[in-house]
Amino acid sequence: MTSPRIRNPAATRQRLLDAAGDIAFEEGASSLSLDAVAARAGVSKGGLLYHFPSKNALLRAMVAEHVARLRAELESRAPGALTGEATALPAACCFLEVLRDEMCSPPAGASGIFAAMLEDPAFMEPVLGFREDLRALFTRCPDPRIGAIVFLACQGLMHEKLTDSRCPPDRNLALLGDLAALLKGEPL
Taking the complete model, does pTM exceed 0.85, yes or no? Predict the structure, then answer.
């Protein structure tokens, strides 16, 4: 007698998102089909369709999950960073730490996020909202002009992560240290 399978919808959903990111990274965005994602995740196509009724829904969820993860990580390190309740300079430095960790993480998910954003510009909504919250955070820093420069450099680093999976992660670590020093008014 086989034991009944325990269902965990949240874990299944995450497996599907992870599989989609892996496929986009390894095989390219054009290989991101629902059949391929279901097979990679070890889920039936019906199971995939239960969570994501279309490829569009899957791609939208990939983008939203990526942004939600970055938001949550920043908020865990600097509560109130994105609402203006935290002191701007330490909160902005916490974002640089989040970005450093993101730079050092495997690029698989990032490639999938970029593929999703190319699929439909409407998928950019969570990204644009997060970007505006970050812009406001950096604008509240003691020197808003330096804050803007650091913010734009961070945007460039995130863009590079999304578009160039071959970029060695440690290449930008020193730059992130320089950005933190610049933000704090320390010599480079």
Answer: no
Q: What is the pLDDT of residue 170?
A: 72
Rounded to the nearest 5°, which phi and psi values hold at 7?
A: -90, 135
Cα(100)–Cα(38) distance, integer angstroms = 32
User: Tell me, what's the pLDDT at 115?
Assistant: 63
Longest dimension (CA), the chain: 69
Query: Per the structure block, which two tokens stand in for 122?
Result: 């409407």
User: 135 to each of 28, 132, 147, how far by Cα in Å?
Assistant: 31, 5, 8
Please tell me the distance from the alpha carbon of residue 126 to that of residue 111, in angstroms, as a whole number. Answer: 17
Do residues 99 and 176 touch, judged by C-beta distance below 8 A? yes
Residue boundaries of the structural domains of the chain: 59-184
